[in-house]
Amino acid sequence: MKHLSIFLACSCASLLAVPLTAQNRETPYWASIRASELNMRVGPSADYRIDWVYKRKGLPVKVVRVREGWRLIQDPDGTQGWVVARLLSPERSAIVIGDGLMPIREAPSASAKLKWNAEPGVVGMLGKCDGGWCEFNTDGHSGWVPADRLWGVGEP
Predict the structure, then answer these.
(1) How far apart are CA 79 and CA 92, in angstroms?
(2) Signal peptide position in this chain (predicted)?
(3) Which in 64, 92, 124, 138 has the greatest CB count within 10 A?
């Protein structure tokens, strides 16, 4: 009976631990800005001064640290600061990087039909990525783009 009590106590403790660990996400990870305006602060509290204001909904960010209701993020320029977690979305987005126009193609191939071109700095929603190509949708202009022309792709 003593062994059964110990077994039940251990089983209950492990069940209680599951929701707690499920709430913690391993960093770093990708996210996007959910709000049309987002304050980046120098510390993880509203008491810290605002260092930057983002006004670009959908911009991809890398979450590098988690602290209660705050996230330390890094933006595409490498700037880091703290933002309120609820103003970030788990939806993946990406931003066009590099020089010159980026081709948006009909299929994941350099020889596929060209649908549109996107300039560096264009932000769009990210679909699946495979073989060096990613699905990319910006304002209804969707297609396949080279993954190496996007920030917000791959392992953060």
Answers:
(1) 19
(2) 1-22
(3) 124
Sheet holding 114-118, edge to edge: 114-118, 102-105, 141-146, 133-138, 123-130, 93-96, 150-151
Q: Is 123 within 8 Å of 97 (Cβ atoms)? A: no
pTM of structure = 0.82
Looking at the domain assignment, is residue 4 inside a domain? no
Quote the pLDDT of residue 8: 40
Residues 128 and 134 sit within 8 Å (Cβ to Cβ): yes
Q: Summarize pLDDT for 8-41 with one digit per residue, the tens.
A: 444 444 444 433 333 357 999 999 999 999 999 9
Cβ neighbours of residue 3 closer than 8 Å, sequence gap 6 or more:
none
Looking at the structure of the chain, the number of domains it has is: 2
**Residue 146's domain is classified under what CATH number?**
2.30.30.40
Name the strand (E) or helix (H) holding 12: helix 2-23
Question: Which tens digits make up the pLDDT trace of 80-98?
Answer: 999 999 999 999 999 999 9
Cβ atoms 62, 137 nearer than 8 A:
no
43 DSSP β-pair partners: none
